[in-house]
Amino acid sequence: RRFDVDDISREAWRSLAEEPLGLAIERYLQNDLVCGLAMTDAKVGLFTQPHDPSLVQNRCFLYHLIGNKTGEWKVPVGGMGGVARELEEAARRSGAEFLTGIRISALGLNGKSPSVEFEMVGKRQTIEARFLLLNFGPNVLAKFTGKPFQPDATDEGSVFKINMLLRKLPTLKAKKYPAAEAWCGTFHSDEGYEQMNLSYEQAAQGRLPDKTPCEVYCHTLTDNSILSPDLSEQGYHTITLFGLDAPWRLFARDNGTVRKEAEKKFLASMNQWLEEPLEDCLAVGRDGTLCLESKSPVDIEDSLGMYHGNIFHDAPTWPFATTKTQRGTWGVETEYENVFFCGSSAQRGGAVSGIPGHNAARKVLEAMKT
User: Fold this and answer.
1) Which of 99, 46, 3, 14 is nearest to 307 (CA)?
2) Of 135, 159, 129, whose CA–CA distance to 47 is shortest?
3) What is the C-alpha separation between 290 and 165, in angstroms, rounded?
4) What is the pTM of this model?
5) What is the pLDDT of residues 234-264, one digit of tens each?
6) Cα 54–Cα 36–Cα 321 angle in degrees, nearest 5
């Protein structure tokens, strides 16, 4: 109803919720680079394209734009570790207890009091709770319940991450941009609109694209507290490369070989703009290895259990109720009593929005009153 008050609102609803996002991008934006810049927010982490009939690109786009009601992205001081520490300290002050290094062996979900069976330091233990919050995806839940997991084609992850520690920031070939200015914010490479349409087509054919679209973020230019004072004084920096059009399917058969090939391609994408290659600017560890870490969708699934390396757990859902049964719910409910999703796979929540955690907490508070 809010989007049916005037022509502008109706056009916004049509462009974002009813038709493929590519139509709006091509209707309102003319410059190929600007079109590509808009489209990156619609496909980061997902294997999709502007005219995808599933509209998963629209949903991804919305989650990247609703932050702070302006779409503004902020850098957490101290890194994500700082955010986690603050949450931990607040929870401990309220009496929470944390157990780490455990392996869950079974979940008891059929009674009013769910239980978790786990192993810690070689000892098997079982605890019961009034509520159980799940911060993993439905694929992991299916493993514990023994029920079949039926993924959608849009659930496949598409991401290639390279984390790097640099001795110095690389110099650009374009001399008019100082290094600190060029690397502040987001550095886009091979992310033009038509270029990404081509890279999507090539990846869909089962091969790494000739030109691999990617973007780089330098956290330490905004917040150097994540480095030791010694490294910071010496001019060290951390940068993260996020590669697109690198779906799980490309790495599934021979992850090690394809990961190495992808790493070379993504670094080459960045090096085309640099006076000196990124590899020459990397810090060297005590063991003599370069301070660089690459992760494919297969690596992400193996280490974190995210289905096919999907950083959102599964395809993002709309940030509003789409069926009558969803109305009046928090979107975190499961088929099991007092068992709720609190992570990205919850309905009407996902990405880095924090919405599912908030909604799970509200659901618990609501249930405690009944």
Assistant:
1) 46
2) 159
3) 9
4) 0.93
5) 999 999 999 999 999 999 999 999 999 999 9
6) 35
